[in-house]
Design a protein that fits this description.
The complex is a heterodimer. By secondary structure, chain A is mostly helical. Chain A is built from 15 helices and no strands. Chain A is rod-shaped. Chain B is mostly helical. Classes of the chains: A mainly alpha, B mainly alpha.
Chain lengths: ~425, ~90
């Protein structure tokens, strides 16, 4: 008997879903570890007042941010893996059912053919097979779109750490990531030289210089805000373009969550403002003429509440990438940059955020926005169609400003990732 | 010389050490499970999962090393202050 002209996708959904569960458990455990780590380091710093303590706080801050980002990405990956497992299981079940139905019709066709006469029912059976083949084709197409989307999500997420991961093998990626850490972690190790703590930072590497370049952090922070505002404006355009981006409805809730997270970060920032790192914090607060231009675009895009008061908001990076996902201009949900870890800093202890602000600015925004500039620019263009002449002027202003800042951020980040 | 609470430093150091161990285990889980996905999902998704696991597993592993080192620094400093103050 002939076989149907469509094939059941290969794979073991059960194993995939089991792995997704374990990966999700890691994310949950990581969140607990993050809380523990923050509590422990905050407790250590409470009555510890030496130059080493200051360096310790900043390194603890970078660790807080990096674990936060990792937990977010792992959580997203768990969702992607589960999504793939569910989709694979569903399409396999569907194709199995369609295969059985097609085979049933095929038996009818062959029985009628064997009789030597085109008896009634043969033509109907052939038409029914064609219909089944169409259903199967649509099911497989849908699964293929899901597969490609989830694959991209994972690679975007991996791309937060290493650019263009799709062309590299796992061993290479592991080596690159570990190598990147050695640019920062040696500072920690050097603090123990000879068994005597003489200061954590004894040698300034490019990475440490970047981390400490407050001006660049400031620019990165501002760049983030403006990018997010523009992306939201674009998202609003697309939300009005019903059906074109079928993932949007589910993402609206994500945007709401981002706003809430942004406020959480603002709370953390205020904690810092009241701390002994007051000056440090002030240096990282974005205040520029550029922000005003962006605010106009933000109002036009309905995102004014996100950027109207930059002095109270210093994080909110995840929104950038999530919004990029919404508008489909470069990244998917899980692929959000280190941004993912940046909005959940608060509440944090005194001293922890200080280091976090600077490190994340250079790391998160640098790797994501700088690498995705073309996509962001495309988003700006799309938003412009909707916001009208006034927003167009503002957007151009923002675009030029962002372009200049991208150069600055890239310079700051080059030491971290070169 | 500044000030410090050696007891708090030692307590925190112990916590950081344990947290580092937990995350190190987590990193191994991520890498192993992503490999499982790779084997169970032929095509493009499985390899992407393996890449993710290698990268973020490495990130977690490096984080664990860093956290453990921070704990050691806390303990070292506690010892220094205890020596300096005769405590």
């Amino acid at each position: 008997m002939s076989a149907p002209p469509f094939t059941r996708p290969q794979g073991d959904p059960g194993s995939i879903l089991a792995a997704a569960s374990k990966i999700g458990a890691v994310a949950t455990g990581g969140q607990t570890a993050l809380t523990t780590f923050t509590g422990a380091t905050t407790g250590m710093l409470k009555d510890w007042d030496t130059p080493v303590a200051t360096e310790f706080a900043q390194l603890a801050g970078s660790h807080t941010v990096r674990l936060t980002a990792a937990v977010e990405q792992v959580e997203g990956a768990a969702g992607a893996v589960k999504g793939y497992g569910d989709a694979l299981r569903a399409v396999q079940e569907s194709i199995d059912a369609l295969t059985a139905a097609w085979n049933g019709q095929q038996r009818t066709v062959e029985e009628r053919s064997a009789s030597g006469e085109p008896l009634p029912g043969r033509s109907e059976a052939i038409r029914e097979q064609a219909r089944i083949e169409g259903d199967a084709s649509r099911e497989l197409d849908r699964f293929d779109r899901t597969r490609r989307s989830l694959t991209t999500m994972l690679d975007d997420s991996t791309g937060v750490l290493v650019a263009a991961p799709a062309g590299k093998n796992p061993e290479q990626l592991f080596g690159i990531v570990m190598g990147a850490w050695t640019q920062i972690s040696p500072e920690v190790k050097l603090g123990l030289t000879g068994g005597k703590v003489v200061g954590i930072v004894t040698k300034a590497t490019p990475a440490v210089k970047a981390v400490r370049t407050y001006a660049d952090a400031n620019r990165a922070e501002t760049l983030l805000r403006q990018t997010r505002g523009l992306a939201l404006a674009t998202a609003k355009v697309l939300l009005q373009d019903g059906g074109r981006y079928n993932r949007i409805p589910g993402q609206v809730g994500v945007l709401a969550r981002d706003i809430r997270d942004a406020k959480q970060v603002a709370d953390g920032a205020r904690t810092v403002a009241e701390s002994r790192y007051l000056n440090f914090y002030k240096a990282a607060v974005p205040v520029s003429r550029f922000s005003k231009g962006l605010a106009i675009a933000g109002i036009a895009g309905g995102a004014y509440d996100l950027i109207a008061n930059p002095l109270d908001e210093t994080g909110a990076r995840r929104g950038v990438s999530v919004t990029m996902d919404v508008v489909g201009i470069g990244a998917s949900g899980v692929g959000l940059a280190a941004a993912a870890g940046l909005v959940t800093l608060g509440p944090v202890g005194v001293g922890i955020v200080a280091g976090a602000l600077v490190v994340t600015a250079a790391w998160g925004v640098g790797t994501y926005v700088y690498d995705h500039w073309d996509d962001i620019e495309k988003g700006v263009s799309t938003a412009t169609k909707w916001v009208g002449d006034q927003a167009t002027k503002a957007t151009k202003k923002v675009t030029n400003g962002v372009r200049n800042m991208v150069g600055g951020v890239g310079k700051a980040v080059s030491g971290l990732f070169s | 010389m500044g000030k410090a609470d050696p007891v708090a430093l030692r307590t925190g150091a112990g916590t950081l050490s344990r947290t580092a161990t937990d995350i190190e285990t987590a990193s191994q889980t991520i890498i192993a499970q992503s490999r499982t996905v790779e084997g169970a999902a032929p095509g493009t998704f499985g390899p992407a999962a393996a890449r993710f696991g290698a990268a973020w597993g490495g990130e977690l592993l490096a984080w664990a090393f860093g956290a453990a080192t921070l704990g050691k620094i806390g303990a070292e400093n506690a010892g220094q202050f205890e020596t300096a103050t005769g405590g």
